[in-house]
Amino acid sequence: KVPKGDSEEEQIAKINYTISLARKLGCQIIALWEHVNEANARYLSLFVAELEYNFKKHAK
């Protein structure tokens, strides 16, 4: 989860920013901010896998 020191609005803003950056990098992200905030293992795994795939694709 996002650290508890932030307000809920700040947590959502940070998560949405991270997802939007990944999409701008060309990743096909299907996770929503709720999935990340709840630390849903399946969606977090897909998120990280897509980032890694995109990185390797562009590193060639």
TrEMBL record:
<dbReference type="InterPro" id="IPR036872">
    <property type="entry name" value="CH_dom_sf"/>
</dbReference>
<protein>
    <submittedName>
        <fullName>Uncharacterized protein</fullName>
    </submittedName>
</protein>
